[in-house]
Structures
1.
Amino acid sequence: MNRPYIICHMVVSLDGKVTGDFLCRPACEKATEIYYDINRTVSSAGFICGRVTMESSFTGGWYPDLSAYAPVESKADFVPDYLSGFYAVAFDTRGRLGWQSNRIIDDDPGYGNAQIIEILSENVDARYLGYLQSMGIPYVFAGKEAIDVDTALVKLKALFDIQTLLLEGGSILNGAFQKAGVIDELSLVVAPLTADACDKPLFMDSELREHCLASVESKDGILVLKYKKV
Ligand SMILES: NC(=O)c1ccc[n+]([C@@H]2O[C@H](COP(=O)([O-])OP(=O)(O)OC[C@H]3O[C@@H](n4cnc5c(N)ncnc54)[C@H](OP(=O)(O)O)[C@@H]3O)[C@@H](O)[C@H]2O)c1
């Protein structure tokens, strides 16, 4: 395969939602705990998230003052010499994520210290590229105006030798991967709640696809389902 094996790992409500208040309810705590535990133990080179999830989980909306950085006009990928082998891959079309370190700062070893990789379109402020270079954050272009999922994944394997990645949301990015047909495995931790009508589904966009059940486990009353692509 010329791209990493992708495992979509998510907490889902009983009605198949992945965003919203249900995630913060006490009844969801055990499912969340199991989710993080699986994240720490699955053998992978790290995780992928959409721009919104990265913002809500890690950057908190902070953004650098780009006037402090020299523009980089070249649209060549930036891959520094030192690669850690453990990555946080951000799908960030226009370079809207502000990182204060080139590693994820988090107490959870399933996330903390992951080397950030920015996946970008070419529709990005040249000064943002200067900022990423000054921070030592690798970046890869995967489309002119939007990010093409296939292109991004092929580059992740070719440039970083990444064999397996967890796709960890949110709904919009999961949907783009589902449409592209690149989800090899689903790892679903089912929280015993239903969600609000306005919350987003596992895949915001999708096509009809078949999966086969690989395992079912019940951990402390929480179902953990694994499905493989047929
Ligand atoms: N239940 C769980 O296990 C779980 C896990 C993770 C997150 N979440 C929840 O998910 C919520 C966020 O999900 P979300 O669906 O709103 O956003 P998301 O999927 O995290 O991010 C979507 C954004 O990613 C960017 N993007 C880059 N390339 C893309 C592509 N090829 N296709 C589609 N989008 C692309 C776009 O923003 P730009 O155009 O700005 O680049 C897009 O708006 C959070 O509130 C979080 O709580 C839940």
Note: The first helix runs from residue 29 to 41.
2.
Amino acid sequence: MDDHRIRRRVLFGTGALIAAGATALGASSAHADNDIQAVEPDVDSTTEWGARTPNGTNPVINRRPAKLIVHHTVAPNTSDFSRARAHAHARWVQDLHMDDNGWRDTGYNFIVSRGGWITEGTTGSLAALLAGQRFIQGIHTSGQNTTALGISNEGSYHEGAEPPAAQWESLVTVCAFACEQYGIPSSEIYGHMDFNSTLCPGIFHDRLPQLRDEVESARFE
Ligand SMILES: [Zn+2]
């Protein structure tokens, strides 16, 4: 296990949010209840992985998303679990979305690599998540982009492949944190195919009940 993969910061109410430096971004009210323990995952920002400048302004939705929608990126199922690979993958997805699809930016709000590294997708999504009161409109699920946060997974999971344990663990962590920050019930986690005609997110859709259970546990462990 790579010790550097997940550097978790455990938050205990608003005091810990101050320690995490999120107060400067406007967070606080989401963690007024000290009984709730959330785990903030490390997320590499667009600056950290060298994203391109979006082609236009990403719309800010000035309310909390009501649900999370899980995707896969249909990238090759690499055995390179490094942070460098996660960054290269984030750049590949952005190039695909901007150059091939003609979108303004990466369509997913966040991406979890096969090695368990989490990267910001649509520029601005990380700051918005830490603030907990708004989100950035992604481009990931037709009809849901102004309601749902899109979280994708590096790899191809529509042909029977299972995600590596590290990827699953980080998916649970980022989903739990997003549910915590935005007050989303863990029951409101879906897969892309619940809304559009697609094979996305493959095996992750089969495992949504497990994901919801583990997210619920992670929020109150
Ligand atoms: Zn999808």
Note: DSSP finds seven helices and ten strands in the chain.
